[in-house]
Every structure is written in structure tokens, then in C-alpha cells.
Amino acid sequence: MNKLSVALVQQRYSANRDENIAHSCRAIAESAQQGAQLVVLSELHTGLYFCQTQNCANFDLADTIPGPVTDTFGQLARKHQIVLVISLFEKRAPGLYHNTAVVFDSDGRMAGTYRKMHIPDDPGYNEKFYFTPGDLGFTPIPTRLGKLGVLVCWDQWYPEAARLMALAGAELLIYPTAIGWDPADTEPEQQRQREAWITIQRSHAVANGLPVLSVNRVGFEEDPSGRTEGALFWGSSFVAGPQGEIVAQADTQQETVLLAQIDRQRSEDVRRIWPFLRDRRIDAYGDLVCRYRDRG
After folding, report:
1. pTM of the predicted model, to two decimals?
2. pLDDT over 90 for what percent of the chain?
3. Are 78 and 26 in contact (CB under 8 A)?
4. Is the pLDDT of residue 246 over 80?
5. Where are the domains of the chain?
6. pLDDT digit string (tens) for 69-116?
7. Cα separations in angstroms, 157 against 47, 115, 202, 244, 250
8. Is 153 a catalytic site residue?
9. In the chain, N or C terminus with fewer CB closer than 10 Å?
10. Are 32 and 84 in contact (CB under 8 A)?
11. Among 91, 127, 153, 171, which one carries the catalytic annotation?
12. 116 belongs to the catalytic site
């Protein structure tokens, strides 16, 4: 099965959890009706991006895995016979929470989970307050469509994460995301940030000879604390091929079911002419496990 039809669901969200879930379910059904075999939702898609501020009450937003939400999406994957990637605020135990992606196979079975490894702590992205770093490693999730290298948002800035997924046999790199502009930034600064986000992920495609699927939310969300001017999520969800070429891309403002077709044979073809994995000097990379090379 060399041709793979995928759909990225770029949406805006509200404080109404039930409406958000229903909205996503409709988009998944639309994706399947248009022939998508793999459907990916954006990061933390059951509600607003609550990490703009620190509020202990937000822990009540978390879901158990498995639980009612995974039951809903698992049934949807089975109904439409699709592989489905969702993203949840996971309550693992009292006081222990993760930012977790869940993958369902086309029979509705939970194929696996990935817990976000890199956790940001930046203005407007107070994720270290909420999420414990993942402990499942960089392990692809096997499905009937192949091995999915699922990572989450901040992970997308780290070439090590993409490389380790590739070395473990991932056939696709998938990034559910929630990233946007600070409305207080100048337009040139905003555009530099967006272009950097696109460029780093395209570079993972190139360096590993793999398709990349990145799906972001869209729309303005207020900072409930009033300390910042909120977040303007820039959408721009895209699919890139194994040479970093853009196969499909959404715009910065509209909700979109972005459909694309991936030719998976191209990963083999590209890796034959650009054999980066062959030429890696694994004998010389020991210092990559250092925080910083302080010695001369």
C-alpha cells in the first residue's frame, strides 16, 4: 500500500467541551467520506489552550486513558475504518498529568499512546505547570497503515526526537500542535516565527527521508488571566514529503480539513539517493548526551 490518503483537521475551539468534541467528530466523518485513511487532530483539541495561564482548576479538564473520550473516538475510528490520532490532557494519577497523543487503529482498538517528552515553559505556554514529561520514549506506534512516529508540538523543534523515531522504524512523523503568535509582536517577528516552525519540521522530513504531518489549531484565544494579549494560533497545517516538499498546506485563518496523498515509496527512493542513515558517524556522537560541551 504505497499510496496513503491523509487528513489533517485544523480547527478553532471554544470553552464548550461537548461542542468541540462534536465538531471534531463531524470533521473526522467528513475526512473519511473524502477517502482519508489516516486522520490527525490538533493538540489538546477538546478545549481552549488552557496553558496560557497557571490555574489549578484546569486540572479538572484532564481525561483518563482509557476513558469516555477515548471510547468516543475509538468508536469513530471503527465506524469509519480509519487510523485516527487524537491529543488529550491525560490524568494518569492524582497530581500526575501528561500531554498525550492516542492512536486508534481502523478496528477502533487503541494501538498505542505517546506522552509529550519536551515540555515548554514560555510566556503564554505554561506547560511545565501542568504536564509531567513523557516516559514512553520515542517509540513508533504500529497500525495497519504502518508505524507512526507520533510526537507533540514542542517536540517538533528537536531533531533528536525525529531521528530517534526514524531509527526505530517510523514511516511517518506526525505532530499534533498548538502554536500561535503573540498579538503584541510585530508582523515581521510573527512571520519569522511561523517560517521557523515550518522550516524546522521540513528539515526533519529531509534529514530522515520521511513524510511529516503537522496539524495546528487556528483562531484567537484570550488569556483568561489578562496578563498577556492572548494567543493567535496561526494554523498553517501542512504535509511535507521526504525531501521537505510541501504536499498540502492550510492557511493561517480558516478551519480546514486538509487532504493529501502520500507516496510512501518515495521514502525508499529518497533514502537510496540521500543515504543519511548510512553515513551517520555514530562513533563520534557521544557528546550529544551532554547538556552542553563546556570543555575546550
Report:
1. 0.96
2. 97
3. no
4. yes
5. 3-289
6. 999 999 999 999 999 999 999 999 999 999 999 999 999 999 999 999
7. 24, 16, 11, 15, 20
8. yes
9. C
10. no
11. 153
12. yes
